[in-house]
Specification:
Residues 1-237 form the Deacetylase sirtuin-type domain. This is protein acetyllysine N-acetyltransferase. Keywords: NAD, Transferase. The protein folds into two domains: 1-17 and 69-101 and 165-237, TPP-binding domain (Rossmann fold, 3-Layer(aba) Sandwich), CATH 3.40.50.1220; 28-65 and 106-157. 28% of the residues lie in helices and 16% in strands. The protein has nine helices and nine strands. Strand 7, helix 8 and strand 8 (209-212) form a beta-alpha-beta unit.
Length: 237
């Protein structure tokens, strides 16, 4: 059976990376002056890049050296679309996974959405934490008047006020959804667009769905199997 796995933050929790919407999650914590929903935007990157990059650095980059856990290892030879930007599927050896929201270890040149751009290794090791804001702006080549297209660097991450493009392999992700004979959601709260897209495709094509989560969200689909357990328990079962 051609199975597609769509994974969320719950899959990386065992690796010590906080989930997004739990009590320790990224979205429950703001900066000193802004909510996460205000911080994680292209508008903030453009208007206040120092604050944006500091927030991104503390919330995501500090976890860049964490390693994969047994769930990532189990998924390493499987058909995976992940919402996570931690890159742990790649560290586990999965060569074909889609990181549909980007990767913390990569950057692009700042560009207009939809343009074709290259991805580069992120220069996090060049950042001087003793003068974090100034160093981030320098490393990301952002002058005082703000990010410059084609020159400044931008984290390779899909922000709240951006949309899916083929930079994030959205066409390939949709192709995999349509060709799946079964879709298994693991560790996701179903609060992002990619899960809704997959659900819509499953409904239209009567694709069976399975949900792996200790407290699963009820889905309006006539062919759903709920596994009320963690991803770690599921792969051990």
């Amino acid at each position: 059976m051609k199975t597609l796995y769509i994974t969320g933050a719950g899959v990386s929790a065992q690796s010590g990376i906080p989930t997004f919407r739990g009590e320790d999650g990224f979205w429950t914590i703001g900066s000193a002056n802004y909510t996460p929903q205000e911080m994680a935007t292209r508008a903030m990157y453009k208007s206040n890049p120092g604050e944006f990059l500091k927030w991104y650095y503390h919330r995501f980059v500090s976890y860049r050296n964490h390693g994969p856990n047994p769930v990532h290892q189990w998924l390493s030879d499987k058909n995976v679309i992940t919402q996570n930007i931690d890159g742990l599927d790649g560290k586990a050896g999965n060569k074909q996974y889609i990181a549909v929201h980007g990767r913390v270890d990569q950057v692009t040149l700042f560009h207009t959405q939809g343009e074709s751009v290259e991805r580069y290794s992120a220069p996090w090791d060049d950042v001087d934490e003793s003068q974090l804001a100034e160093s981030l702006l320098a490393v990301f080549k952002i002058p005082k008047n703000g990010p410059q297209k084609g020159h400044s660097l931008k984290p390779y991450v899909l922000l709240f006020d951006e949309y899916y493009t083929d930079l994030y392999q959205i066409s390939e992700a949709q192709r995999r959804m349509y060709s799946a004979e079964r879709i298994i959601f693991m560790g996701t709260s179903f609060s992002v667009n990619i899960t809704q897209m997959a659900l819509d495709i499953a409904r239209q094509n009567n694709i069976p769905i399975e949900v792996v989560d200790p407290n699963p969200v009820h889905l309006f689909h006539n062919n759903v199997t709920y596994h009320r357990m963690t991803a770690t328990e599921y792969i051990s079962g």
